UniProtKB/TrEMBL annotation:
Pfam family, one: AMP-binding
InterPro entries, sorted: AMP-dep_synth/lig_dom (IPR000873)
Family of the protein in this entry: Belongs to the ATP-dependent AMP-binding enzyme family.
PANTHER family: ACYL-ACTIVATING ENZYME, BUTANOATE--COA LIGASE AAE1-RELATED
Protein name: Acyl-CoA synthetase
Organism: Thermorudis peleae
GO MF assignments: ligase activity
Domain AMP-dependent synthetase/ligase residues, every copy: 34-163
Listed GO biological process terms: fatty acid metabolic process
Entry keywords, A to Z: Fatty acid metabolism, Ligase, Lipid metabolism
Amino acid sequence: MCTAPAPLFHQIWSRDQWQDLPVYRSHLTPLMFLERSLHVFPDKLAVVDGERRFTYGQFGARIYRLASALRGRGIQEGDRVAILCRNSMEVLEAHFAIPQIGAVMVPINVRLTSEEIRYILDHSGARALLIEASLASLLDPIRHQLPELELVVRIDLWERHREPKPATDALPDVPSYEEFLLEGRPEPFA
């Protein structure tokens, strides 16, 4: 004789019972969540990228160095900072460092052609580009067509900056991410 498996919960709650429970809402932004984690778990493992491992403390220090380097090179609140890199620790750092100074991140798909990259850089108004060294050949043929692009930084070089946390944090109402969707020509997605 076969019996049905026991339910996972001793009591199945009705929808009405769930609705009566108090709701905890947190107004943590990703930057606030990171800041909290840096203080609560500074020695806990935060990121693994291949053989590289970083605690929250180390990860935060790297983010603050990048944010400070961008601020030191003139990137200000509301400026667009594009990033052309494969998924890596450095991309994750940029996802926090760029909004940390109030700038807007413009991620660019590494599979695009030089012309598509030029279009996104031009139409996004990007003042800076963080680029993986192995992808620099995509920028070479179009660089002269991008007068608004004032700063190009190879990701393997940004660790040289040693400044502490930037002086200002992003304001909650400042957009931190601008995405372009491809349907023919890339257009900003709002």
